[in-house]
Design goal:
By secondary structure, the protein is of the alpha+beta class. It has two domains: 137 residues, Rossmann fold, CATH 3.40.50; 160 residues, RecF/RecN/SMC, N-terminal domain (Glutathione S-transferase Yfyf (Class Pi), Chain A, domain 2, Up-down Bundle), CATH 1.20.1050.90. A six-stranded antiparallel sheet has the order 2-1-4-5-6-7. Strand 1 and strand 2 form a beta hairpin. The two termini are 24 Å apart.
Length: 335
């Protein structure tokens, strides 16, 4: 897919906005608060099906009752998403649906300034990042994560009920065990795949022989549904006291290991940012190789956070992809 145009109506602070996109690199230039990130968010919704930062009621312009976004590709295809205050509708090739169909999703590499601080982030931030990454690569992961999160929400609501019956939790325990073991397995598989390339890709950027490892930390010790289910049942009294589910893949974390030490605290700021760049390059390569699609690259004001060397590698690595980026200042792109 190559995007040729994106149009926004009543989308965040953009009452009306239209952008013509180039096949290679498109720069959206403007001051902070101009609404540049909103354009990337609209593209993300029409390629992935949902926002990367908010729910639909929060996206709609406060003075309007609806929003509408339209994306046109170089082949002439039109993708439209509308939200009327309660319901979101996608229209692709004149076919309407409440959700973006699986076959119509297109891979995107989203690079936010906050990603550059991923090494020192919280466990929930780590999970959010890798969930977004892995969901694009594996539809099984995407589906399992969605079903797991719904089951977890239901179980946690029941745990807050003063008159709960343990039997009322059983069906949700079954679902958590089923989808939790799938999520755990795929996380292990994809982390192992990332680690096969991480040090080498880092070296290609930094020209330094450092050992980089992505560590996956989980209380789930194997992929046995029975053991997962048993642990949920053993922890029941604890969960009732806490009012939430204390065991499961929703508590997993990811750490970067830099030369056998946790990167947060041992790697310099520049080294940490090089690790994240390497991870982004691996993400793009995995999508291209596994899905046979060249992802669209969305860069939200990250150039200002990178030095000249890392900027050059970023542009060079994605030279065969369509890039749409935002910046508060005019930047050099012809490396």
């Amino acid at each position: 897919m190559i995007i040729s145009k994106i149009s926004l109506t009543n989308f965040r602070n953009q009452s009306s906005y239209e952008l013509d996109c180039k096949k290679d690199t498109t720069l959206i230039l403007g001051p902070n608060g101009y609404g540049k990130t909103s354009v990337l968010e609209a593209i993300y919704i029409l390629t992935r099906g949902k926002s990367f930062r908010a729910s639909d009621p929060d996206i709609k312009n406060r003075t309007s009752e609806f929003y509408r976004i339209e994306l046109t590709t170089d082949s002439g295809e039109k993708r439209i998403a509308t939200f009327d205050g309660s319901t979101k509708t996608f229209i692709i090739s004149d076919k309407k649906s409440r959700r973006l169909p699986k076959a119509e999703k297109y891979p995107v590499i989203l690079f936010l300034p906050s990603d550059l601080n991923l090494i020192g982030g919280s466990p929930s931030r780590h999970r959010d990042y890798f969930d977004r990454f892995f969901s694009q690569i594996s539809e099984e992961y995407n589906t399992s994560l969605s079903k797991y999160e719904k089951a977890l929400k239901q179980r946690n609501e029941i745990l807050k009920n003063e008159n709960l019956s343990p039997a009322s939790l059983f069906s949700w325990n079954i679902l958590l065990a089923k989808y939790g073991t799938i999520i755990h397995r795929i996380r292990e598989e994809l982390v192992n795949r990332i680690n096969q390339e991480l040090s080498d890709v880092y070296y290609s950027i930094a020209d330094k022989k450092d050992d980089i490892l992505l560590s996956y930390k989980s209380d789930v010790k194997n992929n046995s549904e029975n053991q997962y289910l048993n642990t949920l049942e053993v922890n029941l009294n604890k969960d009732i006291i806490l009012g939430h589910t204390s065991f499961g893949v929703h508590r997993d974390d990811f750490d970067f290991i830099f030369n056998d030490k946790i990167a947060d605290g041992s790697a310099s700021r520049g080294e940490g940012r090089t690790v994240i760049l390497a991870l982004k390059f691996i993400e793009a390569n995995m999508i291209t190789n596994l899905l046979n699609e060249k992802p669209i690259i969305l860069l939200d004001d990250v150039f200002s956070e990178l030095d000249e060397t890392r900027r050059r590698f970023l542009v060079k690595n994605f030279k065969d992809n369509q890039i749409i980026l935002t910046s508060v200042e005019n930047i050099k792109l012809d490396y």
